[in-house]
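Action item from last week, closing it out:
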Amino acid sequence: MKRRCILFICFTILIIGSLSAQQPKAKIKVYLLGTFHFAPTDSIYDVLTEKNQKSILKLCKIVKKQKPDKIFIERMPDYEYQNKMDSLYQAFKKGDPKPRRNEIWQVAFKVAKDLNHKTIYRCDHPGQYGFFYSQLEEYAKNNNQTDLLNGKGKTVPQTNMLNEDSLLMNSDLLEYIRWLNSKEVQETSHASYISLYPQIGNTNVFKYDSTYFLGSELTADCYRQKIKIYSMMIAQLDYNEKAIFLIMGNDHIPIIKHLFESNPYFDMIDTQKWLGKTKIKIDK
C-alpha cells in the first residue's frame, strides 16, 4: 500500500511537471509609438528649445516606465554599414556632447541608456511609394480619374487637414505626439491607403493589362514594407523578452500594430492607455 502511495505521488508530480512545461510563456508586451520626424529639412520646428526638451523628458519617462527589454528604431540594419547606429549609441552612452534633433537620439537613445541597454535595434525597410504614385498620377491624368485624387472616395488623414508647423508651435510636444497616436488620427492615416489608391487604374475586372488595378500595387507595397519591418523585429527576438518598444513614423504604425495583434505570442498594448489621451481638439 505504501509503495502504491509513493508511486501515485511520483506519477502526480510528473504529470504536474509535464503540464507546467507545456504552459506557454507570458506574451511579450508591445509598445508602439508613432511620431513625426524631429529633424525635417522643411520645418522651422526645433525640438532643442527648453520647452520641447522638457516635454521630451516627460515622454522618455513614460516610455521608460514600460520597461522595454529591446528598443527598435526606424533604420535599415542592412544599410547601416556594420552597425553604424550601434556605434553612435555607444558614443551617446559615453557622453557624446553633440546635440541632435532626430527622434532616435532624443527618445530612443535616452530611454535605452537610462534602462542600461547594451545596444539598439533597427528595423526599417524601403517602400516604393514614389515609384507607384507617379504611375497612378499619370494614369489618372490620362484616363479621367483625376477626381479620385481630388477627394472622391478618399479618406483624408487628419494630419493633412491642418498646418502641422502651426499646431506644433502652439501645442505641447508630448500632447502633439499623443494626438498623433490617437485612434482617429491612426485610423484616417491607414484608411487613406485602402480607400483611395485601389480605385485608380484599370478596374475593369475582365480586362487585364499593364495598368490592371494599378492602385492596388501601391497599397500592396505599403503592406509589404510594413510586413518586412515587422519581420525584422521578430527576427531579433529570443522570446525571453517581457516587453519591446518601437518608435517610428506615424503612418507605419497601424499595419505593424495589426500584425502584432494577430500574433498569439504578443500582447499589443493600446498606446493611449500607457501614453495618455491627448487634450488637443481639432475642429472638423
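Closing note: Residues 27-123+155-195+236-275 form one domain.
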